[in-house]
Design brief:
disordered N terminus, mainly beta, 6-stranded antiparallel β-sheet, about 120 residues, SH3 type barrels
């Protein structure tokens, strides 16, 4: 599955979702994953191809420190681990892009439309 040196791991959770994330610890009963994300694949009816989305399991917008990683502990009795996999560069890049440290928003030019924010920022 993983050698626990902060490598990307993929597994199915107890309800069949495909989860990826960086393994930060592993013992006999659990697997600790940093920044887990859901791999969602759906058909694109316009192109008749599959569309891939990688969605964070927990959105950093809910955290006080938006650059903070989230860590989740999964019971090994509730997951189905993959074998050893090598991921395509595009897949890895999409995952990494999701969890890049929050960048300050660029200033808004005069006369442009207002941006609706989900939460008030301090």
């Amino acid at each position: 599955m993983s050698d626990t040196n902060n490598t990307l791991t993929v597994f199915l959770d107890s309800i069949g979702r495909t989860i990826i994330g960086k393994t930060v610890a592993e013992d006999a009963t659990s697997l600790t994953i940093e920044n887990p994300a859901l791999v969602h694949v759906q058909p694109n009816v316009q192109t008749n191809q599959l569309q891939l989305q990688i969605l964070p399991l927990f959105f950093r917008e809910f955290l006080k420190d938006k650059s903070q990683a989230t860590t989740w502990k999964y019971s090994k009795t509730c997951i189905t681990p993959s074998g050893s996999l090598e991921f395509a560069d595009q897949f890895l890049a999409q995952y990494e892009q999701i969890f890049k440290a929050a960048q300050p928003a660029p200033s808004q030019p005069e006369g442009s439309a207002d941006v609706v924010k989900l939460f008030d920022e301090e």
